[in-house]
Design brief:
It is an enzyme of class 1 (oxidoreductase). Helix content is about 30%, strand content about 25%. The chain is of the alpha/beta class. The chain folds into two domains: about 10-95, Rossmann fold (3-Layer(aba) Sandwich), CATH 3.40.50.720; about 120-345, D-3-phosphoglycerate dehydrogenase, domain 3 (60s Ribosomal Protein L30, Chain: A). A hairpin with a 2-residue loop joins strand 8 (about 245-250) and strand 9 (about 255-260).
């Protein structure tokens, strides 16, 4: 990454010896406390500037005071041992001092509040852990894939008529394989439909599924299929009669995409908005009937996908609508076209 940006990576002593401006953005802990000391400060070029936007304790003020007495270096800071009114210990050596309020603007506070609300909703509804402090989501995993896991599982669960699955089988392809366990929380959120206070941390999601009698199996995959960074979520429910649903998806151009539902391939559905799924015996005029019934209620179709399964002679119509379709209307549509399955899945976005 550094090479792509044209950035040369060097050690800390080299930075202090060669830089005209040095800005500090590090936490204060046992490893960093007092690390900016005489050994580093004495190597700074004359008239170089040290800017502390980190914590006051990372700088040894006595060493800075002694070095500034010997050479002209500039020191700017907005951090102090205590953020409170009163004299500051660095007042005699600071060239510029500001209150520690750089981010306290109307715009920054609005964005912080908005992001906090969005992330809280995403965590409690979908188990997504973006920006969580001490999170269990590792670096290198795009949190969009957690959203994808949630969306695929939700569709599969609806295909089972909301039955409690007894088994979940997952396949994660390409670079997603090392991150399989981090998909468990959004998968559990889509299936268990628990209240927000019951949502587990990702590490506890597998135990939650186990407590509900759900077996979770992550399958070995064959990357020779060239599915890229994609995933498949399979749900099985029932004992005497086994009901199954299988959904595959990926992310393309930073957009979630459902590629396959059961044997209906090349679906290419973006899981946003209101989506009406209708599986039926393939025959002419079915989509026209569905559109007519929607039109009677002033519901507009804004996107349509209709892949076929030639082996069984079925088609799957997925109609994205401008508003949610009422359950009574879904029942009418199902009866009118003699649907094997008819349900709606709504997503945010």
């Amino acid at each position: 990454m550094a090479e792509k940006l044209g950035v040369e990576l060097v050690d800390v002593p080299t930075i202090f010896a060669q830089s005209d401006y040095i800005s500090l953005h590090i936490p204060e802990n046992d490893a960093t406390r007092g690390m900016i000391n005489a050994a580093l400060l004495s190597t700074m070029k004359p008239n170089a500037m040290l800017i502390n936007c980190a914590r006051s304790g990372v700088i040894n003020e006595a060493d800075l005071r002694a070095v500034k007495a010997q050479k002209p270096i500039l020191f700017c800071t907005d951090v102090y041992p205590k953020d409170e009114p009163g004299p500051k210990s660095c007042a005699d050596i600071a060239d510029i001092m500001l209150p520690h309020l750089g981010a306290n603007t109307n715009e920054a506070n609005f964005v912080a509040a908005k992001r906090a609300a969005e992330q809280t909703i995403a965590y409690f509804e979908q188990g997504i852990t973006t920006w969580v402090v001490n999170k269990e989501l590792p670096d290198g995993l795009d949190p969009q894939y957690q959203r994808l896991a949630y969306a695929l599982t939700l569709i599969a669960h609806r295909y089972l008529n909301g039955r409690q699955p007894s088994r979940i089988e997952t396949s994660f392809y390409g670079n997603l394989k090392p991150f399989a366990k981090y998909m468990t929380a959004p998968i559990a959120a889509a299936i268990c439909a628990f209240d927000s206070e019951d949502l587990p941390a990702p590490a506890a999601a597998e135990k939650l599924l186990e407590s509900r009698g759900v077996e979770l199996i992550n399958r070995e995959v064959d990357d020779n299929k060239h599915y890229g960074e994609s995933m498949t979520i399979d749900l099985s429910a029932g004992s005497d009669v086994i009901h199954r649903a299988s959904v595959r998806g990926t992310i393309t151009e930073n957009n979630l995409m459902v590629a396959r539902v059961n044997d209906f391939d090349k679906l290419y559905l973006d899981p946003i908005g209101h989506n009406l799924f209708v599986e039926y015996a393939d025959e002419p005029g079915v989509i026209g009937k569905i559109a007519s019934l929607l039109g009677e209620k002033n519901i507009n179709i804004i996107d349509l996908r209709a892949p076929q399964n030639l082996k069984i002679g079925h088609s799957l119509a997925v109609l994205k609508t401008n508003v949610a379709v009422p359950e009574l209307l879904i029942a009418r549509i199902s009866e009118a076209v003699r649907a094997k399955m008819a349900f709606q899945v709504s997503f945010e976005g």
